[in-house]
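go over whats below:
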Amino acid sequence: MRNFRIDGSMSEATGARLRAWRKAAGFTQADVAERLGITAAMVCEYENARKLPHSAIQARIQVLTGIPMIEWHPEAEIDVRQAIEEIVDEDGGL
């Protein structure tokens, strides 16, 4: 699977949350990497918002941290709500 280079607040929020969780748990990047089955360099890429983990790694992060993915990406929840509101507005209801 590929890791995609991205820009924007979503990757920054995800990286900041991962770093904050890791430090609160007392883990190094190497510790997290070992548990996720990736390299410490990749954890660094995620934490510094240079890459966003693909879905399989996101699932592993969720299991490791116990934090649902929607909490890692609060912007995604807002986007979904906005899309639903637009559909309802266009159709006059569901």
Q: What stands out?
A: Confidence is low (pLDDT under 50) at residues 1-8. Helices lie at 9-25, 29-36, 40-47, 55-65, 69-72, 74-91. Strands lie at 4-5, 51-52. The two ends are 37 Å apart (CA to CA).
